[in-house]
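2 proteins. here.
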Amino acid sequence: MSYLKFDKNLMINLEQSLPKEMLRTNQSGAYHCTSIVDCNTRKQHGLLVIPVPELGNTSHVMLSSLDVTVIQHGTPFNLGIHRYQGGVYAPQGHKYIREFDCESVPRTTYRVGGVILTKEKIFISNENRILIRYTLVDAHSPTTLRLRPHLAFREANALCMANDALDTSMPECPNGVSCCLYPGYPRLFMQMSRKPEWHYEPNWYKGFEYVKDMERGVPYVEDLWVPGYFDVPIKKGESIIFSAGISEISPRSLSKMYEKEIATRTCRTSFFNCLKNAVKQCYIKEGDDRMYLISGFPWGKILARNTFMALPGSTIAISHRDDFHKIFDTAWSELHTFMTTGEADGRIAGMDLPDIPLWAVWAVQQYAKNYGVDDTRERYLAQVKEMVDYVAEGRHPNLFVSPDGLLSTDGSKTPVSWMNASLDGHPVVARSGFLVEFNALWYNALVFASRLAEGTPDGERWAEMAEKIKPAFIDMFLNDYGYLYDYVDGAYADPSVRPNMAVAIGLDYSPLDRRQRKGVLDTVTRELLTPKGLRTLSPKSYGYRPNYQGSPYDREMALHNGPARPWLMGFYADAYLKVFGMSGVGYIDRMLIGFEDEMSRGCVGSLSQLYDGNPPYSGRGAISHVTNVAEVLRTIRTLKRLDV
């Protein structure tokens, strides 16, 4: 039985099926995303969404959807489904669905009278091409499939309106046609494994409505260009493959290409395998050596902080050691450039943020925990030394070393930490001065670096710096109530109970002793812990907004003022195990159940960007978030190592 299978009763109930989304990527930036009934509910949804470098560093929806119609005895049964203005769903092909599962590839089974048809979709790795295989499982009379493409050719965060500027020509290619609606776009080739009959009937289909965008208070109605349709006969037991890509392909190769690609898939037969697939979908490969992590889908970017935070869980936790090297080395190249020249205009955004070197050292530290100090020293000591000295010498333009060794930063006008919500150019949470996680990461980096360089002058120097920082950290952040101030700016110490203190107690090297860690942990557990991670603000603190809903203004105000973040569970688990040892393993294992429940909700097989801070803890934001998935994977890896 499939780990992720949905039956007829759920699929035909749009209230239950539409909120469930599925995502597939090609590990080169392109993706396919829609609801499990194939009704697009976001403007970012589409069958083929690809990066177009010539048009900027954004994704573009090429092929929005492909309706399939079963024709028998001249009677058509359209299996597609769209939502039009006024909340009208047409056609209502979901009523023919009998089952959907995505154990290896998304597979939908339809039944129309005596016809049983399956549809499977697969992305070709590192190529902007999606294949859709239709198999006629059963039929008692001659059957024809009619495929009607809906084209967008627009930026993923924009909308398309009917216009006369498009190029309506559709020249033929082997077993199909091609098109390029607007200048600057690559040509889209739509081909089939068997020669179809192409009917050119160009028209604008108007008034598509995206319910998720409607809920978010942003524009949500668009028009799509439908140039015509393919007709192709199909026999019982036969499979026909449709290909959409930006290069022409030999139709004869489609079947072999499909089988070769499906053989590489890891089946989603467990919680771990779902997360492994989800995190690998965030890989972006460029050439043989360069590899990145995208922050998430469908509107994620390649970000420096997310890269280093997610790196251990997205590589080491799934036994992809070589991928750690490639991703770290790719990011290191840009970080090194910034530290030496001050230029941060590479492929990875946010490399100039003040905590990036601190998170990079933390990532190396996780590597050392898994592969040993000797290997790490040989491979990464030079990089660690450069990053630690860069910070210690005060060379970062927005990171300042105080006389007692602590770090301060100016976040009054621009967000500098991961809590980066802003309105009208100003941070919603203006964390400025001495930030608790910055200084905890700094202490941790110094101790780790000193042990990596043990027996050398550098090692001794870094150890002395850490010893100096330890009492200063406690004096500044540990308050009389037993928890840590979130930040200290001049005479103001922010008393808000936030999860950044969980980072401070979850690091391998913390300025706090075990008793102090437990005091902080008790506060975090009591006020921030949910089944979906840690709240970004305690319900007892001023300004608590648990629900990430409403207008763009409402959502930005709530972003870091209540909703829970799964990635913080990684540091919470580390802290809990450091305080309670092996007796805490069972408790953390039980806490992971809340995340396993999410595998059949939201984005099937992945974790959302954030969850409401109050029950029922609904998933919000980006439907798949690399740091969340990675840190849950790292926690699973930690539990497995302790269970050996």
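next one coming up
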Amino acid sequence: MQTDLEIQFLPGVGPRRARLLKEELGLVSPSDLIRFYPFRYVDRSSITPIASITSDVAYVQFRGRVITRQLMTATGPLPQDGQPIRFNTVKRLIVVVTDGGGQMELVFFKAIKWMYEKMTVGSEFLFFGKPQSFNGKINFVHPEVDNLTRDNFEGVGVLTGVYPSTEKLRNAGLTDKVMQKIMAAALQTALPSVKETLPAYVLKEKGLCDLRFALKNIHFPKDAYSLEKARYRLKFEELFLLQLSLLKARYHRSRAENGIVMPSVGAAFNRCYEHLPFGLTGAQKRVIKEIREDMRSGRQMNRLLQGDVGSGKTMVAVLTALIAAGNGYQACIMAPTEVLARQHYRNIQKYLAPTGLKSAILTGSSKAAERREVDEGLRNGEISLIVGTHALLEEPVVFKNLGLAIIDEQHRFGVEQRSRLWSKTTDGRPPHVLVMTATPIPRTLAMTFYGDLDTSVIDEMPPGRKPVDTRSAGESKRLALYNFMASQIEKGRQVFVVYPLIFESEKMDYKNLELGYEDIVKAFPFPKYKTAIVHGKQSSADKDFNMSAFVEGRAQILVATSVIEVGVDVPNASVRVSESAERVGLSQLHQLRGRVGRGSEKSYCILMTGDKLSKESRRRIELMCATENGFELAEEDLKMRGPGDLEGTQQSGLPISLSIASLAKDGMILSDARNYASTVLEKDPSLSSPENECLKNELRKSKYQSKDYSKIS
């Protein structure tokens, strides 16, 4: 049978619905449809007595005989006087049914004429829907109506899938019931041609059902056991193929002898290490050892460095750059913002002072004369380490011998942007890559976002770092907050006030920011107090001026959006106020909190919320106040919010979109799939054996040809 026919030719679809299914859900063919899975199921196997129905249940099925039906107009009931009914004046139909033990009111606003003619007094039907309470009475609005058959009369029903939908689809009549009919037609068309995607040995060793059984029972389960078998098979397949694609790239790279060999640490490393004003933590030493092994292995390093805010990643980055310099190579550190690049540069200059090595900075605002000087220093090798933003990717920038690229806050750089660094090496060999993130990444996400990178974690904070006192307060405590801020400023401290920026273009976010800034200027008037403001709609010059005023202590309060200000290090800032904290994810709140507590004074993080919080928001705020463990918070954030984005702003991010598996819920399946993928590749690294041909074919599909997250090629 044809599987590639257009979706519009399936019964119940047609050209208009086909266009909507493509636009709204990306579904083009029957083959697409059968891989579009229900997100939940309702149990249609039991019939509930009407007298037992309450408004707090989700969905319920009951049977009933029609005892009255009443057409309602805008002015009241339509008289039933035998005159022809003008349905264009009717606003709704009210039907009352009974099962002998109780009565139930049903309300219909659509298809009134058809429903009125169908539901004659004395006729019996099976109803399914969501009960709701109106004026103290329970009723059903637009329940599904089925004719009684022997099967459903006896309550022999099935689990019924509910599919993801949109308002446009629902308005076009693509209800759950219609989707089920379309899905049945798609299965009949496409299922006979479905080929198994997993080898027979995988099915046997992992105890998986075959693909046709899984696809049939994920849509129309024979019973709960068959549904579970189908669901597990499809989740394992999805995660196994994803991990296989990631690990295959990593496996081949780890065996390719094309990396730059850096056999020694060099004198600059030793001089810097000897002059450090503090000792490294055990975690920092362990991570440097792991990096050192990569750099002298002869293979390109592709390593993810995770570490909480303040754990000492920058120090590790500097020492890694000095290993490159000690072997005659240049290093670059790329930061996501100019503010962060300049902060890195200031810190790095202190560390490099004893080494005699030359460093430089290059950003979008660098003057032409500066750029020429930097370009010349990079070309002739005089500059050993350069810190910069996206400006490093621009065409004129050419290195004499780039050996190491360190990328801070990796998720802010597109792979296409970073690929330009590849062309800046002279001998064609890829530079070593160290990706750093201060966002704690749950294990399941790390395996997926960065599945082809080696991972190092700095899981130890430097000694003497004081915990941040985290508290929450509602809007009614605003005056108390301002009094507390004033008392801290009197002690010579500074205050961050951060507004969430969920979307760059969202006007409400900027309106809140501007109104908040006005309130603070009123509460803390000039000249006694100076308040700076930084946000994305300012020019670079304005941002730099205001940020510098705060960093250098000329302003006591900084009002900013979280996207601009993350990463800024001001040791004298001891108070962080996070406005509308209930709108922000745990990981982002935790990262922002890490910007205080960097000096010797006690620091505070105040989470300002609305006075009415949802249960989930309250749980997030309570967790923030209870723990400073970033990884613990990240795991909870994943469970609550899903894997959309680690920062809290909306990004896609996943190497492929998952159709049925959940990174928040299926961590055990993911671990098992990854371990098994590793076992398969150990035996057959190129998947060239006949039994693995189907795996090789699957990995050729476009969704597995995603950009390599680790390489900059």
